[in-house]
Amino acid sequence: MAERERNLSPPYGGIFVARAQVLSTDDVQRATKRMAHEILERNGSVADLIVIGLQTGGLALAESLADTIAEIESVRPPTGTLDVAFYRDDIGIRPVLPEAPTQIPVDLTGKIVILTDDVLYTGRTIRAALDALHDFGRPSEVQLAVIIDRGHRELPIRPDYVGKNLPTRRDEVIDVSPDGVAIGEMR
Amino acid sequence: MGATHLLTIDDLSAADIDELMRLTDSFVEVSERRIPKVPALRGRTVAFLFYEDSTRTRLSFETAAKRLSADTMNFSVGSSSVSKGESLRDTVQTIQAMGVDGIVLRHKSAGAPKLITQWTDGSVINAGDGWHAHPTQALLDTYTLRQQRGSLTGMRIAIVGDIKHSRVARSNAAAFTKMGAKVTFVAPKTLLPSSLEPWDVTVAHSIDDVIDEVDVLYMLRMQMERQERSPVPSLREYTRQFGLTAQRFQRLNDDVLVMHPGPMNRGVEIAADVPDSVNGLVTDQVRNGVAVRMAVLFKLFSTTSDPSFSKPTIAAPAGA
Q1: Does the CB of B28 have a partner CB in chain A at under 8 Å?
Q2: Interface ipTM > 0.85
Q3: Cα gap B140→B287, rounded to integer Å
Q4: What is the CATH number of domain B9-132+285-302?
Q5: Cross-chain residue pair B40–A100, CB shorter than 8 Å
Q6: Distance from B122 to chain A by nearest Cα, in Å?
Q7: Which CATH architecture has domain B135-282?
C-alpha cells in the first residue's frame, strides 16, 4: 500500500483494516539482514553499489539495507530515492502525483543499482523505475530487493532479493509499516 | 485544481497553489538532470496560440511541454490564417479538430481564454490576457519567493510601477495575498486601476515611502506600448519617483529581494546593475518559470475525469 493511498478515499485508498500480522518488526529486521548478506555474496564488494529506494515504501528498506551492509563490511554504500510518478503508465487514469523530488547523488553509469520497494505486486512501478533510472546514466546492473512479493505480476519482472513470498488475493492489501507487515482489506 | 483550465489565480485555492508548488519542486529536480525530460505527457498535444508577441512566455511554455514529452503545435498570428481575417472561434475550432489536449492562449483582450473554453474540449491555460491576468507568472513568482524564504506568510511585498496596465500586478497581488503576504501597490494615481476593491492591498504614491519596510520589491516594466496617452510627464520623472535607482538600491536592506517579470527597461524602472546583484532574482524567476509551467501542464493533463476521485477525506491510521 502506497503512502498516498492512506490519504485517499475509495476506490484509490481508504482505511486499512488488518486481518493478520504476517511479519513482526524483528522478522523484517532478520529478513533485511539476510538480504544484505545475499547482496554482498552476489556482488562481491560494496565498491560499485548504490541502494535506491522507491518513494515512499522503499525508502526504509534502502536505508536499513545500507546500514546492515555497513555493519558487515564497514563501508556504507550510497543511498538515493526515486519517485516514478512521471514515468507511470496510468497517468490520466488514476490520480498520479509525486511524493517528493528524486535524489540520486551520483551518475549511475557503471554502478550496480539495488532498487528497493516494500511490496512487489503487478511490477508496473518497477517498469516505471527502470525507465527512470536510465535517465541518470547506464548502470552495469539493476537488482531488485523487496520485503514482500505478493504475486500477480502483469509484466515480466522478478525480484532478486525477497523478504517473504506471500500468496495473496487481488482484493487483499499488504501494509508495511514500522510495526511490521500485515495483511487485510481496504474499507 | 478542480477545474480543467487555468484562467486566473482565482481558480486556485491556497491548498491548490501549495500542491502546485510541491509539484514544482519535483520538476525543478527534473530540470537539473543530465537528461531533463520525463515521459509523463507522451502522446498528448499542446497548441500555443499567441495573439501577442511574447518570446519568453512562449519559449518557457514550449520548453515545459517538451520536457514532459508532449507534442507541441505553434500557431503564431503573423504567419497564420489570422492575418487573413480568421476569427478566434474558427481558429480554435480548427485546432480542436486536429485533436489537441490543451491550448495555451495569449491574447490582447481580457477574457479571451474564458471565451475559448466553450469551443474546445481540451484544457485552456491563460498565458496572459490584456490587462486581466497572467496566472503562470504569479505562480512562478510565488514559487521563487517560497524557494528563498520558505513561506510567504507575513512577507511585505511592494509591487511598483504601472499597475493599471499590468496583468502581472493583478495576478501577483492575488497570489501573494492568497499565500499570506501583505501587498502594497506603489504607483502614481494615473497608473492605478480605477478600483482597488478586488485586492486586499494598500497603496503608496512614492517608492521612498515603502523602501525601508519591505521584504520584496517587485518592479514592473514601464509598458510604453500600452499607453494611449502619456500617464507620466516623462520617463525621467517616472524614474525619479518610482524607479529603483542606484541611490535607492544603496539604501536597501541587504536581504530585500528584487524581482522583475521582464523584459526589463534597465535605467528606467530599475538601475542597470541591480538585477545582476545578489538581491536580484530575475534569473531564478526565468528558471523556475519552466518548472512551474511543467507543474501546471502536468496537473491539468494528468487530472482524471473520474468523478469518484476526491481529495483526502479520511486519514487512516498507519499499520494495524
Answers
A1: yes
A2: yes
A3: 9
A4: 3.40.50.1370
A5: no
A6: 13
A7: 3-Layer(aba) Sandwich (3.40)
